[in-house]
Structure formats: structure tokens, C-alpha cells
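Supplementary Methods S3. Input chains for the assembly prediction are listed below.
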Amino acid sequence: MLTFLLRRLLIAIPLLIAASFIVFLVVSNFPGDPCAEQIKYKTPEAMEACRSALNLDGPFLERYGRYLGRAAQLDFGHDVYNDRLQVGDELKKRFPATAELAIIALLIAYLIGTWVGTRSAIRPGTWIDAVGQVLSLGGISIPVFWLGMILIAIFGVELRWLPFEGWSDTTIAGEGYYHTRWWLFEPLFRLDFGIFLTALKHILLPAVALSTIPLATITRMTRSSMLEELGKDYVTTARAKGLTERRVVKRHVRRNALIPIITITGLQLGTLLSGAVLTERVFSWPGLGTYMIDAALRVNHSVLMGCMLLFVVTFVLVNLVVDLLYGVIDPRIRHSRS
Amino acid sequence: MRHLWLLLLVVPLVTVGCGTESDSEAPTALKVVLSHGANSRPYLPWPGDVAKQVAGDLEDAGFEVEIRKEPWSAYIPSVTSGRHQLALLGWSPDLPDTDNYLVPLLHSDSSEIGSANNISFYRNPEFDKLLDEARLPHTREERHALYEKAVRMVFRDVPMVPLIYADRRVAFRKGFAPLQTEWVTHPLIRRVKEAPSDTLVFLRGADSNSLDPGDVTDGESSKVIEQVFDRIVRYVPGTQDVEPALATSWTKNDDHTVWTFQIREGVTFHDGTKLDGAAVATTFERMRDPKHPYHFPDGKWDNWKGSFQRLIKKVEVGSHPMEVVFRCNHAAPGFFLHMLAMFGCSIISPAAMEKHGADIRINPVGTGAFKFVKWDSGNEIHLTRNENYWDGPPKIKDVYFRIAPDATVRADRLIAGSGADLIDNLGPDTIPQLEKTDSVVVSKLPQSSFCYLAMNCLKAPFDNPKVREAVAYAINKKNLIRLAYRGYAKPALVPTLPSFLGFPKDLKDRPHDPEKAKALLREAGYAVE
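Predicted C-alpha cells for the full assembly:
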């Protein structure tokens, strides 16, 4: 078990180096000169000082090496346009907002997706199956930023059921309440359900918008996986034993169908992170997505690099967790590993 | 499979990365390149639409136009070094004075390759002489006459086509009144006398860069700085006149080189430090003197370099502690007091600079109506009422600056009353809906910025005045405003505002006339059908 974990973590290192190389290559070839833009009086000395401070001087490989050396010590440099902001600090600060949004979105998608998927597999051709089809088709084809706008227009502006005033400690609990930046989960851990509920209301609209991406895939995967299992011999056996249909589905079929569903749910986190970029911008969410898109629009090298690396790390870790989950769900996998 | 998403991100980035960079000039036909920045600006809400409209007009007059869109960070270096032929750009002045339009945009001093603001590269010694003369302390009428002469010269030589004067609007929740601005400022929350709540949320498009007034030039920073700090003089709301603020009175010597200000008694900074002449002198000296302990080495000091560097010799405490003396190298221009009313001249607590060092930019301490509380970067800035404000404490207690990059979302939030009391940079397509909403007031601010089409006079074919004039005849400003600005702009005539000195009241613009444009091109030796 431990060697497995260690091996998987070690694989992540070359992966990170390769990913950082590609990203660095792309970002370095962006058109534009951040120093020329921000310095109004461009003396050669000022330009040189700026270039060296931003790691823009020297041949490509030398700059990449310098970046990698610093990144290994968790120094990602400072914001190209604001030397007060350390990229590492900002990533740490913004991570909880994106993580909470992604977790809630994935939770919504998983709960609704598996429920609808199971129902439509049990009764193919009924209305619930039709709903499932529409959900997955819609989820795949509707752009999240558009859906976000529509959700705002309906639930925020017309019906006024949910707030969309942004994600900030002062809008949820007031100044001085929080000790961490986990604005949704901290009140939960403090058993402060009133504030948790307020936070939940604030996160619901963006989370619903974001959840449509994984929702589609999870619904379809659940449906086909359940259908496949339902046709197997052991189901007939279980039914022949006189088990109720409910018990057959819950105890036998669903467990077996769960493996591909869990895999696809884990993999969805990648699309969720890129979807967060769009959703966060629409809802002005102070997370990594907003940070990254602003950086891309302004050619903010250091911020882009930092965000991409963090995304890669998150993705690798989540896949690791998914692999570990297999063992929990399916004892056969656990045994074959040890 | 699992890294496919990364590829998906990388591929579009690579294609963006190798897009531009072919700068071939077309010597024969009338092939021209029209460049514009990709990012929207107050005077260019949809730069692509404006570019398409202008290009269409030019093609009707016989040009062949290629539109080149560049990210802002590549566009600015490209135009300041004169790599463009035609370029769309705008200008928002810092002072209500024609000087602040004509000198940066058209004086030959501003046309140095690599750092030019004068991206038409218009170099006319006769024109320069008029501007230099108008800077000397003349009467208003004399300055008006000089500027009018200069402006007519620009109209004749056509180094640029002024396109539009941009409308600047804010929208706010009904009940907040009045939301006034001083001349070039953003809405001043201290002037609000009636309010439905004691909290105000100012929802804007982006975060501030820094709250050190000496070291920033961007609007998102200045709209916070203006609430926290005061200047020694300020504008009378709704006018271009200056009135006392932290200074109560002033005198000048006969040749306008020594200005003496009496500083207001009994004012304290938010940290309890007493305001005196030394604090005022320190605020200016730290910008002027590179060896000053508060001249923090990573600062860019663009405000100072742009306005005061050549003018001011020294700022020092006068004959008593509440007196400040500005000593100038040459006669201060007629708009010297206006320069002192700019947000860059905000008076900072010297004790706070001593305490925080360069981190004063995240811990601003002034004398203003609102005290700084907290800045959560990328998300929120919180200010609270200064109960001891010298001009009477403001009505509003807490001010939150929050961010929504999308103009539609800003409008939605204000309409829903969900986390926005005041929004700015309205998207032209959101204005009709905001105006229809009962709970919202849309208010026009004084016009200040304008958008123009610069023609690079150093490059063919625009080194030929006939071709430049043809462009002026080719562009249909009325259509441009209707289609690319949704009607929210006014046609521009010359590079200064109608309310400023030197605006020629009787000058008529060239009509939209493609045939005349073609005729001019033929005169210039180009074969157009």
C-alpha cells in the first residue's frame, strides 16, 4: 500500500516537470512585453532592472531552469504588474474558494447524476429516462458562462431567491468571524449552521452552473454502467432468490456499477477546473479561475505559470485519491494490490 | 487521456502565440494596416467593433484595410515605438486643461520612438511654439487664443482623426444623493448627504494596484485613493475651478516661481499624526528626491515624472510650521493649482510611511473622509467613516469596493439590489435596462476621455497630408457612434473638449464624403476607382 502510494507520488514529479516545461514554453512565446507596458519612462536601466526582476532576460532554457529552481522552493515569483503580490501567497489564498466551489459542484453532480442515471437505467424509456437524456445533452452543450448568466437573471434578478453578491467573508458572516479562508466549511466545522446556510446560499448559483459539466457525464455513465450490470447473470440469480427489486439494485447492481462512475467523477475534476475559469468570472468568484483568466488577458507570466502548476498538482492528487477509492469500493482490487 | 484537458488549453494558447509579427509595408496600392488593442477601455468599450466600422468606411473610400488586433501589453509597445500605420487609441486627461490634451498627444517632445504618447509622430515646430507659449502665465483669454490657433493647425494638418468624446456614466441605487464627482475624479462618497443605508458597495471591474498615491496612475487605484486622502486644493463640484482644501489660502510671487500655501489648522491623519507643513513638504519631496528615505526603490513615480519633474525645484516648510513653499525652476503654468488637485498629490501621513515603509501601498493613511480598514486582494477593500473629518464626517459609515469584471453582471447586481449600490464603466448595452429600472439612477459624469484614430506621419502613405485628409473625409462618425457605441458618445471635432480653453466654437467638421476622399487620394497619386 505504502509503496504504491510512494510510487504514484514519484510519478507526479516528471509529470510536473514536463507540464511546467510546456506551459513555460507557451507563456514565454506570448506576444508583448510587460516591462514596456508598465514603465512609462523607458530608460535602458529601468527596462533591464524590470526584465531581470521578472525573469525575462537570458536564453529560454536558462530562464526555465531559474524558474524551476525557485518553484522547487515554492517561490513562484511575484505578480508581473504588482510586485507586492507573491504568486505563491495568492494561490494559497484563492485555493479554498475554488476548492469549495468545485467540491459542491461535484457533489451536486454526483448526487443528481447517479440518482437520475439509476432511475433511467431501471426504467428505460420512461419520463425519468427522458429527463436524464435532456440533462446530459444539455449539460454537454450549454456553455457554463451562458448558463451562469441565465441563472443570475432568473434566480438572482427576477425571483430574488438567491444572493449573488460575490464570495467574501463580509457578505457571509461579517468582519472578524473567520479564522481561515474556507468560508463554507469553517462554519460547518464550528457547527454554526446559520452561517453555513448563508454561505451555502451564496455558493449555490455558481455551483449549480458549474455542476452541469460533470452532471452530464455522470448521468450517462451511471445509466450505461447500470444497464450493463442489470443484464448480467447474477442479477437474474438475485431476482430468482426472491429479493425485492430495490434490494437487487441497491445491494448488488449499484455497487458493481460504481467503479466506472467513481473513475469518471474523479476525471471530471479536470474539466471542472477549466469550467471554473468561466464560472468564476461570471460570478466574480475570488478563486483561481478568475486569477488565471485575468492573468491570461494581461499576459501575466508568473501568475499563469503558478496557476497551471497548481492545477496539474491538484489533478494528479485527485487521481491518486480515486485510485485509492477503488480499493475501498472493490475488495478484489485491494487484495490484488497487496 | 487524463491530460487531454491540458492539451486543450495549450493548443489555443500556441495559436495565439504565433499570430502577429509580419510588418510588411505595402508601397504600391493603398493597402494599410489598422491596429487596435484587444482590451476594452472607457473610450473603446468594443474595440473590435470600432475597428471594423472604421475599416469599412476606409474601404468605401478606396483603401484596402487589414485589421490587426493585439493584446494590450503588445499593442502599447508597438504603437509607442511607431510600428503601426493606423492605430485606435484614446486619452483621459489628468487636468481640465487643453495643455493636457495637446502636449502629450501632439507635441514633438512626446514623440520619441519607444516612449511616444504622440503616436501620430506629428512634429510641427510652429505648433510646439504655441503650446510652449501657452504654458507661461498669461490671462485666460490669451491662452484661449493660443490654443485655438494650435487646435486649428491640428485640424488643418490632420495627424489624427478625433472620433468620439466618450460618455462617462455611473449607476447607483435610488436614494443615494448626490453622487457627485469633482472634475476628473470618480464619485466622491463623502459628498453623499442622503442614503437609504449606512453601507455603500462600490462594484467595479477590477482590483486596485496600489493605494500609495505617489506611485499609481490607474483608475481602479485612484477611485479608492480619492476617498482616503485629501489634496491641498480641490475642485468645486461641477466646475473646473479650484478651492481650498488642506490649504486655506495661498500667495505667489510676481513671476509665478514661488508659491506659498497656508495649511489648515487642527487636521489630523487617520493614525493621529497632526497635519502640518512638514507633512505636505514630505509628500512632495519623497516623489522629487530619489535619495529621500520614502522614495521607495520599486516605485515608478509616473505622476511626478509626467507633471512636476521639470517644474519643481524644491518643496519646503515656510517661515512657520503651517506654511509650505513650492519653489519652481521656471514660471508655473496657469494650471498649476489644477495640478495640485490631482489624486497623485494626495497628502500622506509621514508617520505611516516611517512605520510601514514601502508597504504604505497596502496601508494607506491620509486625512480623508474615510479610513482604510482592510484589503483582501482580488476581492474587496473596506473603508470606514472618519468621525473627525475636518469637513464634517460623511453620512455613509462603511464603504466596500468589490469586483465584478463583467459589465452585465455589475448591472444585474445593481438591479437585483444584491451586493451593489454603485457601479461604473457601464456597458453600453446595459444602459437601457438600467435606465428602465425604478430602483436605479443612471448619472452622467463630466465628459473627459476621447477616442481617436492616429495616423503615423512617419510612414507611407500617411506621410502625405492629402491621404490623411482623405481618411478624415472617409470616416462616418455618426454611423460609428450608432453602431459601435450604441449611441452613447458624441462626435469629436478636435483633440480637446468643448468645455476647455481653445475649443474653436465656429469650426465645422469635415462632412462624411467618400467621393471627396477618393478625389484626394487621386491627387496624392494613388489609383482608386
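The radius of gyration of chain B is 24 Å. Chain B has three domains: 7-13+27-166+448-523, 169-205+369-446, 216-368.
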